[in-house]
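PROTEIN DESIGN WORKSHEET
SECTION A - STRUCTURE
LENGTH: 205
TOKENS:
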């Protein structure tokens, strides 16, 4: 997994609350193999009309935000079912950071496992950022995971993230890598346990 330390550039002001995983990727597209890429299906039914034509006024369809690595949303982003494909759609589209006041728990966990940062900002800060992006669409936004800050214009605010998740993203670690990072402690425990309970070690081990 690619480490995530700092992401800067345009930020797409999605501005919707309660975006669930079925909206992030409708279930009918999940029959396709991941190897084909899910990015084109991101928010499909919100981005397109009934004929499949892109709605020009939808934020992700506007040229300034089409390739944005940062997305800004309102409360309860990623709620609903536990489908990991919702994160695949974001990641395959190129999104590396989602800023929101709250996230669905399973979505946030899946996001971290796929190298995507679910950064929790105060609701007032989200509203200020959305307003700034509406006024200045190409306003640069900078997200620093090490410092846990988001900056735009003359504003800099902090965001929250689980410290274990922060460590995973900064290092590009999956859950197995987290365990491996404790290899020294594990070895010391095993050695001490062998002294305490030599009878517990399998014969020939």
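SECTION B - SEQUENCE
RESIDUE ASSIGNMENT:
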């Amino acid at each position: 997994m690619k480490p995530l330390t700092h992401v800067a550039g345009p930020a797409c002001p999605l501005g919707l609350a309660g975006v669930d995983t079925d909206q992030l990727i409708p279930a009918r597209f999940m029959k396709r193999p991941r190897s084909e890429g899910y990015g084109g299906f991101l928010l499909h039914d919100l981005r397109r009309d009934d004929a499949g034509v892109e709605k020009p006024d939808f934020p992700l369809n506007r040229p300034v935000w089409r390739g944005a690595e940062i997305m800004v949303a309102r409360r309860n982003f990623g709620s609903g079912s536990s489908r990991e494909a919702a994160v695949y759609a974001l990641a395959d589209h190129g999104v590396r950071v989602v800023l929101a006041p709250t996230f669905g728990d399973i979505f946030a966990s899946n996001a971290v496992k796929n190298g995507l940062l679910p950064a929790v900002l105060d609701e007032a800060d989200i509203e200020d950022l959305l307003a700034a992006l509406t006024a200045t669409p190409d306003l640069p936004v900078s997200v620093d995971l090490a410092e846990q800050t988001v900056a735009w214009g003359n504003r800099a605010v902090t965001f929250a993230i689980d410290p274990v998740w922060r460590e995973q993203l900064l290092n590009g670690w999956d859950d197995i890598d987290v365990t491996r990072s404790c290899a020294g402690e594990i070895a010391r425990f095993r050695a001490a346990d062998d002294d305490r309970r030599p009878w517990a070690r399998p014969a020939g081990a």
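SECTION C - NOTES
The chain has a mean pLDDT of 93.
The beta strands are 6-9, 11-13, 70-72, 97-100, 117-120, 141-144, 149-152, 155-158.
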